[in-house]
Amino acid sequence: MPKDYKDNMPISRRKFIEELRRYEKGSVSRRHFLGVTGLGFATAVMAGAVPGLRPRKAYSAGELGDRVVLATWPNYHDEANFSAFTKATGVNVQVNVFGSNEEMLAKLQAGGSGWDVFVPTNYTITTYVGEKLIEPLDLKMIPNYAADAFEPRFADAGTVGGTVYAVPKNWGTTGYVVNTKHTKGKKLTTWKEFWDITKTDFSGRTMVHDYQLTTIGNALKYFGYSFNSVDPKELADAEKLLLEVKPHLFAINSDYQPPLRNGDAWMSMCWTGDGKQLNTDMPEMEYVIGKEGGEIWSDFYAVPKRAEHRAAGYALINFLLDPAVNARETLAHGYPVADSRTNKLLPKELLEDPILYPAQELLDTLEFGAAATLTDPNRAELLARFKSA
Amino acid sequence: MQGKWINRLLLMPATAWFLVMLVLPLVVVAIFSFGERGAAGGYVPAFTLDQYLNLPARFTAFKNTLLLAPAGTLAALLIAYPLAYFLAVRASPKWKTILLVMVIVPFWTSILIRTYAWIFILGGRGIPTLLEFIGIEGVRLINTPFAVLVGIVYGYLPLMVFPIYVSLEKLDKRLLEASADLGSPPLRTFRQVTLPLSIPGIATGCMLVFILLMGEFLIPALLGGGKVFFIGNALVDLFLQSRNWAYGSAVAATLVIIMLVTVTLYMKLVARVGEQREDVSIL
Amino acid sequence: MRLYAIAVYLFLYAPIGIIILFSFNAGRHASDFRGFSVKWYGKALDNPFVMDALTTSLTVAFTTAVLASLMGTMAALALQRVQGRLRALYDGVIYIAIMIPGIVIGIATLIALVTAFNFLNPLLASAWPGGKPPRLNMGYASLIGAHTMFTMALVIVIVRTRIAGMDRTLIEASTDLYATPWRTFRQVTLPQIFPAILAGFLLSFTFSFDDFIIAFFVAGSESTLPIYVFSSIRRGVTPEINAIGTMVLGVSLSLLVAAQFLLRMKARQARAAG
What we know:
Number of helices of chain A: 19
Mean pLDDT of chain A: 87
CATH topology of the largest domain in chain A: D-Maltodextrin-Binding Protein, domain 2
Oligomer: heterotrimer
Strand content of chain B: under 5%
CATH architecture of chain B: Orthogonal Bundle
CATH superfamily of chain B: MetI-like
Number of strands of chain A: 12
Strand content of chain A: 15-25%
Number of helices of chain B: 12
CATH class of chain B: Mainly Alpha
Structural class of chain A: alpha/beta
């Protein structure tokens, strides 16, 4: 992996931050800053979206307010993009991180989440619509969303009954990351090996998500069952395996990067981007998609009903969908996008990266999560039993 | 007669408040605990005992709580007592106030932040690395019951130190001197004079810590890695993950009943031990 | 003995030391020290969400403390003259209020209020005469409500203990001298129970300010400081959190020192005057 692929970008991440610092200090003009960083494009698009208003002034006090609350997943954004958004609009972004779709749903169901934008996964959207928790998107407020630029299989889940409720953020896979320093040269390729080595050589060093879909789904894969199974007998097998493995786990947590980085944990269930981030900083960290299959997913931006800073929420979605901004997001977090405009801006190395774009025969085995999996009471209860065991 | 009206008037706001914010919620929990989970979560009215019959599914969480809460209370007591004794009996008056204040000061930063600091201390780059320097390898502390216990003792130590200090402070030092003058060995003095006098403080401290530990959620969540589960963690999960309000209500109701029983028994016991002492109270 | 005390203080202060140390970290990750800097203090103070959370926490804690000490004192005063079944009932309620774990208070309040609001909101909307009807929601009111419930029980216990230990002859003397009940209360009872009320007030404030678990459930879209810290911790701790912790500690310490100083001044003045 060439270290300098980031420099093929219109502007490298480090350079961007340097420029931002300089701009903050006042040593460069705003136009210079926007020009160099490509933000000019972004703000110009935004300005075009709001007729008769120019950037900065367009979002002066009262227009968008000064804050927006985003509920998202761990390690899923480029912090510099948020700073740039604040600079451009005066809106500060508060990021709340969640480790499972269930947690997001529970918070919305209990009323008053306080979010303006959140990031649900493909299979949950019909439930949110059915429960009347999210609003149909006002696409006029998201001019950067061009439906035809997106690969349908990663965008379709956002449309329910012909109405667009959510626009695609990123897609990815759920595999696992393993620190090869500890595998004694053995190459792990399957979920069976993931669970088996946890019970032996990796005892006390493995992490699984605090998330029923993936933790149960990948335990089901041990037996070759469907990732989405709600069959009581198959779930019983998965539960038996999970209970057997539990004493050997390091932790049950969806924010697994810190212990993997400091060496406390050696292996964890892992999403594409975390795998990429870890692998970039620590080449010994290998991202594996279990041969038996597992999950492929697509995340979306959606707006909860009665969002308090609704306009700012839309502005944030629009900003993040700007191809230049989106490209920087991907460079920072390592999740692929289904947007052809963004991909044009990304370096070739990244578009051929096997972590982001696994081989076709691996992809073919993967399943999208199913709506029934989210609401199935047995799966929810199974995970809770596993955790409290 | 006028006094009666004034009394009613004085009691009214508190009564209304307790009715809406305590009695009503508890009644709702009681009702919901006989209901069922909705299709996408939440609650659907029903009358069934299923939720209570399903309680064994949280047996380990109840067991952990009922083991680790008393264990944590005891550990806090064992560490707090000598300190309280030192402060009350041995410390020079000049330093006493400052030392006492220093026990509370850590309390002024959020418990969250302090517990987070322990993740660092107990994590791979903290104590285990130090231990490696002296040749002890492969020690794992974080995400174990031990880590949770450390967090508990740390978080609740001041609550234990203070009541004990207060009761020991009342102790007349001349009693100790007299006992020593009469040739009584220190241990015997402690057993016959100091300890009985400090029982009210011990009782109060243990009660405070125990009550808080029974509902603990944060410390196991942060230092237990999602593996060491208290009933509080099970409750949070039931409401914030699996959205099973009916079952969650049954678990909550059970916890309340367990607490009512244990705390009441405990108070009776303490009352009997301290027979003639009336200064044993929950505060 | 002394060594033991030193060890315990080390135990108490090691995490505090680490919090303070890392608040000056120039790097982005809380546990990876990259040189000295105070920039995170600036960031925390510039962050409107931190300031919002702080304002919310202070408002809620202050309102809670006022309501709890006011209503709790009133109830304690009334209860001393109540006997029999009502008294027993009240004692039971207070006992339960203090004994129930915060997490159960939080959950019970959440489900009770959400259910009530789901029922009341449509009614309110249909009965509203024109315009946009207000929506009942979890937020400030539910948070203050739950905190006040719990701390009020504490205040009642504290004040009642004080009343029980009060010198009754003074009240009798005052009544004998034909003072009105109000005057007796103001000039005799209140000064005697005031320390207890103050203690109750401070305890309520501190509890409310530091509470996480009840707020976690009932705060709705409001964010208190502990809630902000909790969600930031999940996001990977930056030294900003340490800076916030250090500042809260610093402010409370200086308040304490100031209070001590004032007390000493007063004592000195009193001595000089006497």
